[in-house]
Amino acid sequence: xxxxxxxxxxxxxxxxxxxxxxxxxxxxxxxxxxxASRSGEVTFDWGLPATWAPxxxxxxxxxxxxxxxxxxxxxxxxxxxxxxVARFVVxxxxxxxxxxxxxxxxAEAELAVRDSGAAxxxxxxxxxxxxxxxxxxxxxxRSGRLALPTGSVPEAFVDVDDVAEAAAALLVSAGDEHHGQxxxxxxxxxxxxxxxxxxxxxxxxxxxxxxxxTPDAYVAELxxxxxxxxxxxxxxxxFTLFRAGHTSxxxxxxxxxxxxxxxxxxxxxxxxxxxxxxx
Length: 279
Fold this sequence. Notes:
By secondary structure, the chain is α/β, with parallel strands linked by helices. The chain contains eleven helices and nine strands. β1, α1 and β2 form a beta-alpha-beta unit.
């Protein structure tokens, strides 16, 4: 059995949603971590292959957060394995295997590590709770209106802290029992977006409306707001995936990896509102 306790772990996307939570968890567990991103402690840029070898620099394990563009992923994985990386933990997305026009980078990362000859584990989380307060939907919620093409299909939103803790549990384990495993991660229950908005509005103590849009109207609103067309198309494809129901049923990955129930959405909303997310 391989001893992973002394492995140096390279965390890609170390300043992103999961990465910036994962790095301190690993260090608190006594692991040696290389925190890599375009603006992190260690420079790594998917678009600049010259940054790859210095970032890999002796790492034996890689937490791989793939870019949207699938193009460079295979080359990075091959270079990592040639340089001594023996294990990958990949952050993918739930339902990506059914996606069309969304998640190509995640799908490619899964394929690349499966074919790499290294040990691998894949995490497929649902939509993050923190998409509501950190970036994607923060601005429209603060404006008092979130309009999306959900088709009234619920989403089993997962807290990104649970995702980071699940990744940490994998990375600090011996790893052998997790080789070749795919863990789907969700919150404890599925919520229609409108209900989620209602929970956040009550937590924030202010009115926030949810409006159901057609896919065409959604794309039109994104373009009118200044989003590039490829982004609007990809986001629309994401909601096509959601409306098909591939991410609507809660799953037990958090419980399997952490031995507890995932954090409820209400807890997240109270915490984010107290921090002024939607004020």
